[in-house]
Amino acid sequence: MQETETTEEARRALEICNACRYCEGFCAVFPAMELRREFATGDLSYLANLCHNCKGCYYACQYAPPHEFGLNLPQTFAQLRAETYAEYAWPKPLGAVFQRNGTVVALITTLGIALALILTVLIQDPTVLYAAHEGPGAFYRVIPWWLMTTLAGGTFLYALLALAMGFRNFWRDTGSSLAGPAGARPVATALHDILTLRNLGGGGHGCNDRDEAFSTQRRWFHHAMFYGFLLCFASTSVATVYDHVIGHPAPYPFWSLPVQLGTWGGVGLVVGTAGLIWLKVVSDQAPAARNLLGADYALLGLLCLTSLTGLLLLGLRGTGAMGVLLAIHLGIVLSLFLLLPYSKMVHGLYRSGALLRHALERHAGHVPPAD
Ligand code: SF4
Ligand code: SF4
């Protein structure tokens, strides 16, 4: 990773922290930091992505503004994380998308919806588009099977490839001789930390979600969003098996497995994303990186819109509004797939990688558990 003003600032902050060590029990970052005397750019990238932005070290720090040291570790790490997203993006030129990410996400989503609507209007007779359709294959009478599977499959496979290449770039750049060999135990530890968001627990009392007071709201809203997303993905996977393996095309009854998974996943996504947007609006802005808020709001809005249009489609699928709603929902889903590697969604990938590297260092005996 390249040297920038942000890497210089992160290095300065970590050298002060390494002398102070007051926050060493706060999170995984400090024990990992204490192993290092010097910070190469790869180390900085690793520590920035290991940070869960709980803000505890800002409110506890005697060197935070207005002190002349002006230490603001959560803000510095957030800015550095954004630079790592651009640095590891694949193909490399598309890293530029992270510079005005909020605008790009909003633009691609709008274009995705417009394109899906225009294509549907062009290929379908208006009487088909505005008529009510029922029974197996009703969705394909509005948008043909070949078009739906080509667009959805193509964009999703591309996103998987770009994410895998981004992860490879992150893993190579943050390589460390401190990490032990990969094995089942470090992987299990990392998976536990990822799935429970242990680093947002603040050792049990929670984090500084809004201000100096401790809370677990962000952790629970994030859980609702994350598991909601997984349930929606499971719903799509089950529906794919029903359609292509069993030969039973959508739409399915309300109590069927794909619809139940999708409904509860959609509700989780709406609750989680709305809660996280609310927390961002009401929280103290001092430890936040304000120039990155647009990217945060845009992604949360896109996820919320995906689930809302999915739920609306479920509710109105037996009516004449189904055709237009299906086109809008498909346009949003395609935009989401395309933006997976070029939006803040990548934070989950790199943070998981940082947690795995941290687990390898812990199991090699270098780092004590962070609780
Ligand atoms: S954030 Fe402040 S209090 Fe915490 S270790 Fe760093 S210098 Fe010390
Ligand atoms: S913001 Fe929280 S997770 Fe990040 S370094 Fe500070 S204490 Fe650790």
Automatic annotation (TrEMBL):
Which InterPro entries does the record associate with it? Citrate_utilization_prot_B, NarG-like_sf
Record's Gene3D superfamilies? Transmembrane di-heme cytochromes, Chain C (1.20.950.20)
What residue ranges are annotated as transmembrane? 102-123, 143-167, 224-242, 262-282, 294-316, 322-342
Write the signal peptide boundaries: none
Q: Does the record's keyword annotation contain Transcription?
A: no
Question: What superkingdom does the record give?
Answer: Bacteria
Sorted UniProt keywords: Membrane, Transmembrane, Transmembrane helix
Record protein name field: Tricarballylate utilization 4Fe-4S protein TcuB
Q: Which organism is it from?
A: Teichococcus coralli
Q: Which gene encodes it?
A: tcuB
